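Lab meeting, item 3. Inverse folding demo.
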């Protein structure tokens, strides 16, 4: 446990300096291949969990500290330990003892008494410390103040629910490749192996307990892919048919490209500007036995890659704040700034403006974000329609879209937060 505490504290330091948590974990696995699956799981849980609840953890820590703590590595160690004491089943005395021992390993032996005193003080009055921490919005919701204000202003009736749901563990959703196996037959396969799962909408299955992909039946053979239910709507909404010429812009890691190819015999070009992430697109296609024209390019620079032939369908899953998928990437909420939303909005507008001329008359264009902020969603759509008289917005045909949400799917127990707007060129 001590090594895991230290590793999680070091990862926390990197994330708060601006590094992505998933990338930092991948680098750690490469540096330490000797780590067992159990050790990796513990480090991952401590890292993700601490970031999910960091706002409340810091509020508690500020109450416990009588003097400012200058050593940031000690602060990170305390953060991880407080997460363990509050949110895991570890024996409290073991967690405290291991944290004290970790001080020696990170060459902070003089702080052993301080670490011990703070953690034991928390244990003595845990309920009171938590109650006091929740007197501030950040302590209550574990989000930065600007984020809380933005959500509450946009969603006055359910803002608290949205924020709190983002601190929960996300479900593990699978997309069944129904071109290869029916969902019923796949569920039967899971049952034979005593893996509990439930049907969701469309082609989705939700596992009762998450599994490493290597242990998911049929994953290596291409029978299923890991994809959130909200994201699975994209390919269905685009309404592809055999022979269609399709563009998947900002395609990495390739889940939507693969889904489109599972639905119809199409000619698809998948573009992303990150070669490292495009490797995952190619890996996914190879695993599923599918083929696409995969390009590394800036979608806005159409003169460099477009062959002047219009597309029947365009999927624009544009870069965004990722505010709808925070429970999967809790590092986001501590790295984003309020000013970032306008920057994303400008990028989104530029991408759509460049891609719209590539759509054939009568074709369909699907605008997608994994955001819950209207500046990236409804406001973008309103501005686009004002400047493009040849565009008409279409109703979203899936019945579980609520009209009052205007294409916005809010995060809940089964879904990530996504936004969809569908257009046709007239």
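The presenter then showed the designed sequence:
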């Amino acid at each position: 446990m001590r090594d895991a505490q230290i590793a999680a504290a070091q990862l926390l330091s990197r994330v708060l300096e601006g590094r992505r948590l998933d990338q930092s974990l991948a680098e750690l696995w490469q540096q330490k291949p000797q780590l067992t699956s159990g050790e990796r799981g513990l480090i991952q849980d401590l890292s993700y969990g601490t970031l999910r609840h960091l706002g409340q953890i810091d509020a508690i820590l500020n109450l416990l500290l009588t003097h400012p703590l200058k050593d940031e590595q000690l602060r990170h160690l305390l953060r991880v330990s407080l997460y363990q004491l509050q949110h895991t089943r570890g024996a409290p005395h073991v967690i405290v003892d291991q944290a004290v021992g970790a001080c020696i390993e990170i060459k902070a032996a003089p702080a052993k008494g301080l670490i011990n005193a703070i953690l034991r003080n928390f244990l003595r009055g845990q309920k009171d410390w938590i109650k006091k921490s929740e007197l501030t919005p950040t302590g209550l919701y574990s989000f930065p103040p600007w984020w809380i204000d933005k959500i509450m202003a946009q969603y006055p009736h359910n803002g608290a629910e949205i924020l709190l749901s983002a601190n929960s563990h996300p479900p593990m959703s699978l997309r069944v490749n129904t071109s290869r196996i029916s969902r019923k037959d796949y569920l039967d396969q899971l049952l034979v192996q005593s893996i509990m799962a439930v049907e969701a909408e469309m082609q989705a299955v939700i596992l009762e307990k998450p599994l490493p992909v290597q242990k998911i039946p049929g994953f290596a053979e291409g029978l299923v892919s890991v994809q959130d239910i909200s994201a699975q709507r994209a390919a269905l909404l685009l309404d592809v048919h055999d022979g269609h010429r399709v563009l998947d812009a900002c395609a990495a890691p390739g889940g939507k490209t693969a889904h489109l190819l599972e639905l119809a015999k199409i000619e698809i070009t998948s573009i992303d500007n990150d070669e490292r992430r495009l490797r995952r697109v190619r890996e996914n296609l190879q695993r599923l036995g599918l083929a696409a024209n995969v390009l590394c390019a800036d979608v806005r620079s159409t003169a460099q890659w477009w062959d002047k032939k219009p597309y029947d369908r365009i999927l624009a899953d544009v870069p965004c704040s990722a505010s709808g998928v925070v429970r999967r990437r809790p590092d986001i909420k501590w790295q984003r700034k309020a000013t970032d939303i306008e920057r994303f909005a400008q990028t989104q507008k530029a991408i759509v403006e460049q891609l719209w001329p590539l759509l054939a008359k009568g074709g369909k264009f699907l605008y997608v974000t994994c955001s819950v902020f209207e500046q990236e969603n409804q406001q973008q759509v309103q501005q686009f329609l004002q400047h493009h008289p040849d565009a008409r917005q279409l109703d979203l045909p899936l019945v579980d879209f609520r009209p009052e949400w205007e294409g916005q799917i809010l995060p809940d127990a089964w879904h990530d937060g996504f936004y969809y707007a569908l257009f046709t060129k007239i």
